[in-house]
Each structure stands twice: as structure tokens, then as C-alpha cells.
Amino acid sequence: KCYRCGKPGHIKKNCRTKFSNKKDNMSQNSKNKEKEHEDYNEEVICVVSECLFADGDLTGWWVDSGATRHIAKTKEGMIRMENLSSGMQKVYMGNNSYCDVMGVGTYRLNVGGTSVILTKVLYVPSMQRNLVSVPTLTGKGFEVRFVPGKVTVGKHGRTMFDGKYVKEHGMFKLNEMNKSSGSAYFDCAMN
Fold first, then answer.
1. Which of 4, 41, 72, 170 is spaced 20 to 30 Å from 150 by Cα?
2. pTM score of the predicted model
3. Mean pLDDT, each 10-residue run in order, the chain (191 residues)
4. Which residues contact 21 (CB under 8 A, 6 or more apart)?
5. What total number of domains does the chain contain?
6. Residue 74, strand partner residues
7. Domain limits at 55?
């Protein structure tokens, strides 16, 4: 959001808005400062790089090292969820926009005949992808390893799930879970 004109999609130094005189400029700056203070009241609880996803496959879960929380775009796997009012919490996007968080809950991720339980998952229906947050996982002691073409997630030397690199999106998409690992519980609560 631009702090000069108040419009989303650019920042002040790139603003093309011209003011007719200093009085208009000062008036606009006052409005922007008021708006800026209003914005501090909104709780921004997550940052993601969603701007990379313009089209393509919308299914599955994607590993995102820039996301600060796990994000589900549907309620389909939610075991429990607390609904939130629109605007109560927001996710900051990599393209300088915001998305409303409509709920927070526990998500059962079923892959390869086994399940992973993700906690404190944000329900954001306006997202185009489901995202698994690398910082959330590593913050809970999980090891996330990236090698050319592959990512693995595990603990104590045991791989719990992996993914493959999808070149057209520049990210890793989760594959089926390692069948020998059974189910895993990812206590990924982050405030």
C-alpha cells in the first residue's frame, strides 16, 4: 500500500499521483497518516509469496519457505476450526496486498494413505494454493532439506514426507507421504 496516495499495488517512492499544490499534498498526507494508524489495528499474522501463483494446478500442498504460517484454501481437511470475522486477521501477500483470514484450525493432511495433523492452520479461501510453512516446521524442530529437484521433511533422521520441484511455479509440491512413517503430528502452533 502506498503511503502517499493510499492505493494498493505500489509504494510511495514509485507513486505516480501528482498533487496540485502543497495544501492538497498536506491534506492527502494527513489522510494517509490516519489510514496508516487504522492499519496498525489490523493484525497481520502471516506473510506469504502468493504472487508467484498466477495460474496452473490449484490442488495439493506447496512448501513455502516465505510463508510464516500454514495456509489452507478450503475447509475440506479441517478437523476443528474457529471462524473469524472478515478483517479480524489478515495475511500479507508478496505482491503488497492482503487477504482475510476466515478461520484458524487443525487440519488433517491426507497423503499416501497416511495423515499429518497441522495445527493453527489459517483458512484463507482467497488463496490459490495450500501452503506448508517451512519456518513453522523448523520452529517445531523439524528438518526441511532442499536438494536439486526435491524437498524432504522429517525429524530425528526419519523422512515424514517429501516433495518435488515444479519448475513452472518455482516451488516444491508435496508428494505422497512415506508409507512407513504412518501418521505424524505436527504441533505447529505459532502465535
1. 72
2. 0.66
3. 70 66 47 42 51 57 92 93 91 83 91 75 92 93 94 87 88 69 47 32
4. none
5. 1
6. none
7. 44-186
